Amino acid sequence: MKRSAIITAVIFMAICLAGCGLSDIKLFQKNTEEKVYSENRLLSVNGIESDYREALLYLLSAKESAEKLYGEGIWELKLDEAGTTYGALRKKQVLEEFIELKIICANAGEYEVELYEEENRDIAEYTREFIEKAGRENLLKYNISEPVVKTLYTNNIIANKIYEAVTLSVDTNVPDAEARRGKYQYIFKSKFKETESGTSVPLTEEENTTLREQVQKLRNQAVEKKDFLSFALLNTEAKEAEVYAGAGFFNEASELVMALSDGEFSPVLETGDGYYIVKCIKAFDEEATVANREKIVLARQEARFEELLEKWKANAQVETDYKKWESLNP
Questions:
Q1: How many CB atoms lie within 10 A of CB 107?
Q2: Which helix (H) or strand (E) holds 313?
Q3: CA distances from 167 to 2, 106, 204 (A)
Q4: How many structural domains is the chain composed of?
Q5: Contact by Cβ (8 Å): 13, 133
Q6: Which single residue of 22, 24, 268, 323 could bond 96 by disulfide (Cβ 3.0 to 4.6 Å)?
Q7: Confidence check: pLDDT of 223 > 60
Q8: φ and ψ at 113, to 5 degrees?
């Protein structure tokens, strides 16, 4: 099932964190310094309270994932002259992600989201497995209880169901011309050059004329090559020489490229940024086209959800106990 990364929940030792940070931190700084909080409450969203231990599980998971990826000590690594550590930066992001998840879940009633019996059984099983894997020592160390873990798994499922409900009406019809992907090999030569200062400037008219002649010679050689890909890799200025591409990839020359047949070479194609020599390997690649169609639909779904989420964030009443959050150390 496709889903937006921003609603993918995180469970320590069980699920990998894949959230996106919030774009407006000010939303979560609503004069909370003088608030008096209950013992375990970290924040409330639209009046719905959240236990600090839920967010702590996210934080523990983030640290564990970082250490697996970058090695032990990454959490204390200083990132700038001010002494900001990777752990401090990631901790800030985790809180933003956690709040965003809670904002999504706070809107469950609007979509009449309910959990089915099978989903409740899954939550119970996931919770049981997590408790077993975490071990008694870790549970006691971080004061983690079964209801806390269950709440996190429940939030994950609810958030995904809200995402599905919001994006259900998104248009999934993608025109063939937009979805189409073919396989092409090509050589690219740029009309720009880099100066000693590192800036990019256009070639002079004389230099451009010389380049055009060179590219034409390359094209004459290319059509005789049995292994055009190897030849292209030796001569191109692009990072790659083979792509699955569709309309727009070759800029102004895309329409001409899309008209090529299997095995056919293009003439030298001039665009605003340079010159192309293209060989069509497969004008229509079904697998790549299906994947691109799905990618387009997913992008539409995420755009729809992001638009609605921005409205939710703007209207959300969020109160956060920042002192409690700062006191948590994974």
A1: 22
A2: helix 286-315
A3: 11, 17, 51
A4: 2
A5: yes
A6: 22
A7: yes
A8: -75, 125
Phi, psi dihedrals of residue 197, rounded to the nearest 5°: -80, -5
Report if residue 289 sits inside a domain. Answer: no
**pLDDT tens-digit readout, 146-194:** 999 999 999 999 999 999 999 999 999 999 999 999 999 999 999 999 9
Sign (positive or negative) of CA dihedral 251, 252, 253, 255 = positive
Q: Do 152 and 17 lie in a common domain?
A: yes
Exposure of 321 in the CB half-sphere (CA atoms within 13 A): 20
Position 65 confidence tier, pLDDT thresholds 50, 70, 90:
very high
User: Same structural domain for residues 274 and 317?
Assistant: no
Q: Which domain holds residue 309?
A: 5-171+296-327
Asked if residue 64 and residue 199 are part of one domain, the reply reads no
Averaged pLDDT, 231-252: 96
Is the same domain home to 78 and 137?
Answer: yes
- Amino acid in the structure at residue 234: L
284-298 per-residue burial string, b: 16 or more CB within 10 A, e: under 16: ebeebbeebbeeebe
pLDDT digit string (tens) for 103-157? 999 999 999 999 999 999 999 999 999 999 988 898 999 999 999 999 999 999 9
CATH of the domain at 134: 1.10.4030
